[in-house]
């Protein structure tokens, strides 16, 4: 099992854009890999079209997107027409990101994406709705695992990428329901005597019944 902070496992795969080596395909970008139970399914269709409409936001953050579904490339190609139509694309527009073929479930198995409770018509386990975020050093930074019946919120995935990219650069953590621009928390590891130097914009210590000064807020650092 791959753990957060590990190098994300590399693999080769057939995709709607030809064969790829996952690490080569990532290049110097961040990446999100999101899996789907199967082609021509309603929730998946809404998710893949949502990714099309959010592509400018992913690009702004230097993030490449790639889907995976346990069907063949030829099935994916036919399905892409429905996804584009649902996203409001023109018929002759190229599908803007690759979808991995995983009809024998080898990649899903390797990456721990299978859901034993979700079976296809042949009784084979389908892939769950996994989301893996990989950074520009190929490190595995986040995973989300949803059951087939619950579509993902891709705005949340963008929000998480904002938090990961910000907290890589500044000694802060992002609180509940944080959005880019909101106040952040000073990391507990930052000692009191470093605050002035590290946070010239100032901090606010929130008083708490314990009397411990650990809840320290600071305006969102500019990165
Ligand atoms: C869907 O994408 O709609 C779906 C796929 C598999 C099981 C349930 C829903």
UniProtKB/TrEMBL annotation:
One Pfam family this sequence matches: 1-cysPrx_C
Residue span, Thioredoxin domain: 2-166
Active site: residue positions: 44 (cysteine sulfenic acid (-soh) intermediate)
UniProt keyword Phosphoprotein, yes or no: no
Matches recorded under InterPro entries: AhpC/TSA, Peroxiredoxin_AhpC-typ, Peroxiredoxin_C, PRX_1cys, Thioredoxin-like_sf, Thioredoxin_domain
CDD domains with a match to the protein in the record: PRX_1cys
Keyword set, alphabetical order: Antioxidant, Oxidoreductase, Peroxidase, Redox-active center
GO molecular function: peroxiredoxin activity
Gene Ontology biological process: cell redox homeostasis
GO cellular component: cytosol; mitochondrion
UniProt keyword annotation of Oxidoreductase present: yes
Described function: Thiol-specific peroxidase that catalyzes the reduction of hydrogen peroxide and organic hydroperoxides to water and alcohols, respectively.
Homology family: Belongs to the peroxiredoxin family. Prx6 subfamily.
Name this polypeptide is given: Peroxiredoxin-6
Species: Vanessa tameamea (Kamehameha butterfly)
């Amino acid at each position: 099992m791959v753990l957060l902070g590990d190098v994300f496992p590399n693999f080769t795969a057939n995709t709607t854009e030809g064969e790829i080596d996952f690490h080569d395909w990532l290049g110097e970008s961040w990446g999100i890999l999101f899996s789907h139970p199967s082609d021509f399914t309603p929730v998946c269709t809404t998710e893949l079209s949502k990714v099309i409409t959010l592509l400018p936001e992913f690009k702004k953050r230097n993030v490449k997107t790639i889907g995976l579904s346990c069907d063949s490339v030829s099935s994916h190609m036919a399905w892409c027409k429905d996804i584009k139509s649902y996203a409001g694309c023109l018929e002759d527009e190229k599908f803007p990101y690759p979808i991995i073929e995983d009809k024998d479930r080898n990649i899903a198995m390797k990456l721990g994406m299978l859901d034993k409770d979700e079976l296809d018509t042949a009784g084979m386990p389908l892939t769950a709705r996994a989301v893996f975020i990989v950074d520009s050093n190929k490190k595995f930074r986040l995973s989300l695992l949803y059951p087939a019946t619950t579509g993902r919120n891709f705005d949340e995935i963008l929000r998480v990428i904002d938090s990961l990219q910000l907290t890589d650069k500044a000694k802060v953590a992002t609180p509940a329901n944080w959005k880019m621009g909101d106040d952040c928390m000073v990391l507990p590891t930052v000692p009191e005597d470093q605050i002035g130097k590290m946070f010239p914009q100032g901090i606010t210590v929130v008083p708490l019944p314990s009397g411990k000064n650990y809840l320290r807020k600071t305006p969102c650092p500019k990165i």
